[in-house]
Amino acid sequence: MTVRDHAIDRDALTLTFVAEFTAPVERVWQVWADPRQLERWWGPPEWPATFTRHELEPGGEMRYVMTGPDGETSAGWWRMTDVDAPHRLAFDDGFADADGNPVPDMPVTHAEARLEDAGEGTTRMTLVSTFPSLEALDELAQMGMVEGMSSAMAQIDALLAEG
């Protein structure tokens, strides 16, 4: 099982996922650093992502579109706030319109991913999303963020198995 745990902390306004992968930290980092690998797991299996912009550096931006089973789309953006390869990346995460521009009336979360050696050739990835308010946390949780991220992260094992 990839995702070992997830927790919603309503006091801290966070949603945390902890996953472990049978691969070294440097290899797991590549699923973030390579846009072709990132789009194979960012988003639930029935909503694959296409990254149209990928700047993995502080101040860099990411743009992506997820496409649903009936052809509907949902776009997003990231603004990288910190990158410390291969152990840490942090970014602001929001919804985008069809042109990739941030949607101002949707919540923006701050995400931080940490990768650490868990021993015996495994890597523990902890992904913490911090919400601007309890209302935003509840809104995104009701939109299926917990289930969506769990199913998205479950795709990483198959990607890592390819080498």
Description:
InterPro entries: ASHA1/2-like_C (IPR013538), START-like_dom_sf (IPR023393). This protein has 163 residues and is α+β, with helices and mostly antiparallel strands. It has a single domain, classed as Alpha-D-Glucose-1,6-Bisphosphate, Chain A, domain 4 (2-Layer Sandwich), CATH 3.30.530.20. The protein is built from five helices and eight strands. The protein has an eight-stranded antiparallel sheet with strand order 1-2-8-7-6-5-4-3. The mean pLDDT is 94.
Layout: helices, strands, pairs:
Blueprint: E1 3-9, E2 14-21, H1 25-33, H2 35-38, E3 49-54, E4 61-67, E5 73-84, E6 88-96, E7 109-119, E8 122-130, H3 134-142, H4 145-153, H5 156-161
